[in-house]
Amino acid sequence: GGEVNRPGRTPGSEIAALREKHEQEMEALKSQHRETVEEYEAEVRRLAAKLSEGADPRKIADLEARLKELQERLEAEREQHVAEIAKLRANSEENLGNLEKIRRLEDEKAAMQRSLESKDQQLRELDAVQAQLRDKEYRLFEANKALDEARATHSASLSSATRNLEHEVQGLKRALQDKEQEHEAALRSLAEEHRRDAARQVAEVESQVAALKADLEARDRRAKAEALEAEARGRREAEEERDKAIRELKARESALEEEREVVKRHAVSAQVLGDLSNKVDTVAARAVEREERIGKQLDKTLKDRDAAVS
């Protein structure tokens, strides 16, 4: 495994340090391997030099055996070196993976720390609220206790006051019933009096209506009689005016005829005849106007009579 994460160092710096350490270890192994190989190669060269000098066949056989042994040891060292490098690389990868996990855990730890701090703040606020609630509960308990003591102290007087109040309520109920009965009796009396007054007023109104009807009928009869009388009087006056106008017209015509005869006899001038003719026309027009005026007066009299009758 890797080193323990020390305070003040981040997971990223730990990974960089671990990578640097692994590179140093790799370089050390490579250097050691190179030294071992160089030693083996020097030994091989030394043995090869001895073989080239033409030594004893037994020594040659020993040298060849020694060379073979060195070659085998060199191959074993090489395999061991490769295995150590693979192991070191595997450990490095494992340590890097562990450091990545540590970094994620550190991030999660920081998030959890922030969440815990927020929850701690909420808990402190909740503790404050609970303290306020406990204080209010205590004060409520004290108030209830004082109320119970006051209730126990004044229970006797309260019971007496309640009984007195019940007696007063009963008395008020009886008084209310008496007032309701009196009110009902007064209402019945008032209703009876109202019915009598209404009957009397109806009788008076009916009597007044009958008197008015009789008066209207009498007035109608008088109006009809007066209208007939006025109509007759108007007719008489109209007839008299007409007769008078006719008589005057006839008299004027007679006078005019006489004047014409006189004119004829005395051979008056044409101007005099014209003046006489104008006078005759004027008299005739006046007679016609008088007849129209008499007719209009008669019509007015008849309309007035009809209006009075209606």
TrEMBL record:
Residues 15-266 form a coiled coil. Keywords: Coiled coil. This is Uncharacterized protein.
